[in-house]
From TrEMBL:
Its main location: membrane. The chain crosses the membrane at residues 33-56, 62-80, 209-229, 249-272, 600-619, 625-643, 655-677, 689-707, 719-743, 749-771. This is HAD-IC family P-type ATPase. Gene3D superfamilies: Calcium-transporting ATPase, cytoplasmic domain N, Calcium-transporting ATPase, cytoplasmic transduction domain A, Calcium-transporting ATPase, transmembrane domain, HAD superfamily/HAD-like. Keywords: Membrane, Translocase, Transmembrane, Transmembrane helix. It comes from the Bacteria. Residues 94-191 form the P-type ATPase A domain. It is a multi-pass membrane protein. Pfam families: E1-E2_ATPase, Hydrolase. The keyword Transport does not apply.
Length: 777
């Protein structure tokens, strides 16, 4: 054993920065997050209009400003939550490691390991850096977090170890030649750490609307302002500014952005109760849109544990159970030994001598008073194939191994010479081992299959094992171990790779870079891809996928980059997330329709009043009343209500096909009512005419709400009725209608508004009937 570095050599490396500390900024700073969520075009536009209204001294008309605070607050809160998660990203779970310095063993923190340190690792330790093995005493590593390979890897002197691997048996020393950001795992994680926002059709559709509306505002805004100043109906600049703000605020779907965020937040709270952590708001919607799910095997479909599947007797011997229990015992137990002793622990036999397991021999033995029992790989133990019994045992072992199972043989012999195989070996039983498949894996696979979602199992493990597990959990197109593809034979071209992915569903020996390429190939074909995983080798693919799902007991790297984390590692929560996403999408579509109807009629009223050079038909506070009672409050309840409608692409198109004609009808009826009352009574003031317009729009908008609430349930009927009652109270109670909403109510004006509203209802039903007839034909 070497003496390791001296104190002076350690100090020199620390001064040069050659330590194991990894300091990478994983997300935006607090200031950047605040600026990104506060200083948006949306907030800037509303803020400018808010300042203009406040300048007029009309505080009632400035209530729409609260939307800026609430929407920015939700965005900041959620991104800060994601930032905290990303900043806690750490590949290694251990806090201290043993290093040899000046000939003595010291315990230091992971970050204090320096380049060229002599590191000592033993069973249960996690490797803190990369480097060559100097000494190995039965050293076995679980590298599944790095490669996806579930089988322990035996390390000899000269072999390379990588940070993140876990020692499952034996012990040894290695030199830390690569530390900190230069390690293999750190390089993978550094790329996976980069912050990115999940793609959302709802958010993208809303942003597209905002951009289009922004262009319209650039044209209509100055025109409306000019017309309001020219209008004889307005008295002073305050009226002109108030009318302009009313028209522009009505054209902005400010509540839609807020409602979408709130719906996502409520979904996140619901899923949190089911042990599912959502790290980005749109991820709930994203999984509902997914049409391909890529599944890692080790730690995802399987628990990563090896279990004893069954024994296949080869010869009668009533001592089999005791001998197997005794033979599996080891001073440095590995996963295989633990799996056997978990089922066969009691033995009345006494061990007189042992030959420990060796990766070169691939067997171990124990000698009792009467026999020597050997446990190991059949091809290494049963070498005398001229013996019919041995030949038959080998054939059975090969047949079972072809099914993707791991097979050992327990044989009985005599006269062992040192560490050589005993003579006259008699095969007693085959020991069949398997990975423990998660109990919820098969039902979840069945759910996705029924929903038309394609499944792809991609793993770094042996292809035959991958195929066997995929078949066991019911992945369509995988009938057994032979149906899996060895990824080393896959093409590098993404189009060619996509063609293979279309025809196959199970892949083994997949590298982290190939997992990433598979996600990209599927996305190139237009698929919405979800990726599940638990190891560092999955991190890059999880980051690139449309939705990354990490297991809660997996690597911190995967948990940090994934949008969804199954905290208890239970697959059964995924259908809950899909159902929640569908509910959000369907309900937000209803709410969006209500908002866009308002945007359409506000735009038409703005253009009409600009051409006619009259005062805008509604005051900002009256638009606030209409928006709250017919859109804001009911849309909130509609957005959180139950809805099992399956996701159908084309959210924005469907919304516009309903909102545009209904908005046109609303605008025509509103402006007609506004002008008629002034034509029949020229002495009617702007405030009195706006009262008629308010009643018309309330009636038509409440009917529109009732359409979106269909099919009616008791709670939906109650919601619409409650909004109608509140509207009546707001209009008819003088202290509210006149004192707050600036209405000048009289029986004739209310009656005129109701009549024109009824006309609007009839026109909307005619439009819907025509649209339905055209759609059917």
């Amino acid at each position: 054993m070497g003496s390791g570095l001296t104190a002076a050599e350690v100090a020199e490396r620390v001064a040069d920065g050659r330590t194991n500390a990894v300091q990478v900024r994983t997300s935006r700073t607090f200031g950047q997050i605040v600026r990104a969520n506060v200083f948006t075009f949306f907030n800037g536009l509303l803020g400018t209009l808010l300042v203009a209204v406040i300048a007029t001294g009309s505080w009632q008309n400035a209530l729409f400003g609260f939307v800026i605070l609430t929407n920015s607050g939700i965005g900041i809160f959620q991104e800060l939550r994601a930032k905290r998660t990303l900043d806690r990203l750490a590949l290694l779970n251990v806090t201290h490691v043993r290093v040899v310095r000046d000939g003595e063993v010291h315990e230091v923190g992971i970050a204090d390991v320096v380049q060229d340190d002599l590191v000592r690792i033993g069973s249960g330790d996690q490797v803190p850096a990369d480097g060559p093995v100097l000494r190995s005493a039965g050293l076995e590593l679980d590298e599944s977090l790095l490669t996806g390979e579930s089988d322990p890897v035996h390390k000899r002197a000269g072999d390379e170890v990588r940070s993140g691997a876990i020692v499952v048996a034996g012990e040894g020393d290695f030199t830390a030649t690569s530390v900190g950001p230069r390690t293999y795992a750190a390089k993978l994680a550094a790329e996976a750490r980069r912050y990115q926002v999940t793609t959302s059709e709802l958010v993208a559709g809303t942003n597209l609307l905002l951009r289009r509306i922004s262009l319209i505002l650039l044209v209509v805004g100055p025109l409306l302002l000019w017309a309001q100043f020219r209008s004889k109906d307005n008295h002073g600049w305050q009226d002109a500014v108030t009318g302009t703000v009313a028209g522009l605020v009505g054209m902005i779907p400010e509540g839609l952005v807020l409602l979408t965020s709130l719906a996502f937040m409520l979904a996140i709270v619901t899923l949190a109760r089911r042990r599912t952590l959502v790290q980005e708001l749109p991820a709930v919607e994203g999984l509902a849109r997914v049409d391909v799910v890529c599944l890692d095997k080790t730690g995802t479909l399987t628990s990563g544990e090896i279990v004893l599947d069954r024994l296949v007797p080869l010869s009668a011997d009533d001592r089999t159970a005791q001998a197997l229990a005794l033979a599996a015992v080891s001073d440095t137990p590995n996963a295989t030994g633990k799996a056997i002793t978990a089922s066969y622990a009691d033995t009345s036999m006494t061990a007189l001598a042992r030959v420990p397991f060796s990766s070169a021999r691939k067997w171990q033995s124990v000698t009792t008073a009467t026999d020597t029992w050997v446990l190991g790989a059949p091809e290494m133990v049963l070498t005398d194939t001229a013996d019919p019994a041995i030949a038959d045992a080998r054939a059975q072992a090969d047949q079972i191994a072809a099914q993707g199972r791991r097979v050992l043989v327990l044989a009985r012999g005599t006269a062992q010479d040192g560490d050589q195989l005993p003579v006259k070996l008699v095969p007693v039983t085959l020991v069949v081992l398997a990975e423990r498949i998660r109990e919820d894996a098969a039902p979840t696979m069945r759910y996705f299959t029924e929903q038309g979602v394609k499944l792809k199992v991609i793993s770094g493990d042996n292809p035959r094992t991958v195929g066997a597990v995929a078949a066991a959990v019911g992945v369509p197109g995988v009938g057994g171990a032979d149906d899996a593809v060895d990824a080393r034979t896959l093409p590098e071209d993404l189009d060619e790779l996509a063609a293979v992915l279309d025809g196959k569903s199970a892949f083994g020996r997949v590298s982290p870079q190939q997992k990433r390429a598979m996600v990209a190939a599927l996305q190139r074909r237009g698929h919405v891809v979800a990726m599940t995983g638990d190891g560092v080798n999955d991190a890059l693919a999880l980051k690139d996928a449309d939705i990354g799902v990490a297991m809660g007991n997996g690597s911190p790297a995967t948990r940090a980059v994934a949008q969804l984390v199954l905290l208890d590692g239970q697959f059964r929560h995924l259908p809950d997330v899909v159902a929640e996403g569908r509910r959000v999408i369907a309900n937000i579509e209803r709410a969006a329709t209500l908002f866009l109807v308002k945007n359409v009629y506000s735009l038409l009223l703005t253009m009409t009043t600009a051409v006619a050079l009259v005062a805008y038909p509604l005051a900002p506070i009256q638009l606030t009343l209409i928006s709250n009672l017919t859109i804001g409050i009911p849309a909130f309840f509609l957005a959180i209500g139950p809805n099992k409608q399956r996701y159908v692409p084309g959210f924005l198109g469907r919304v516009l096909r309903f909102a545009v004609p209904v908005g046109v009808v609303t605008a025509v009826c509103a402006f007609t009512g506004y002008r008629l009352v002034r034509v029949f009574d020229p002495a009617t003031t702007v405030a009195e005419a706006r009262t008629v317009t308010t009643v018309v729009v309330l009636v038509v908008s409440l009917w529109t709400l009732s359409i979106q609430a269909r099919p009616f349930r008791p709670w939906k009927a109650g919601l619409v009725a409650a909004m109608a009652v509140l509207a009546a109270v707001a209009v008819l109670v003088p202290a509210i209608g006149h004192g707050i909403f600036l209405l000048e109510v009289s029986p004739r004006r209310v009656l005129g508004g109701l009549v024109m509203g009824a006309v609007g209802i009839v026109l909307i039903e005619i439009v819907r009937w025509v649209a339905d007839r055209m759609r059917r034909t």
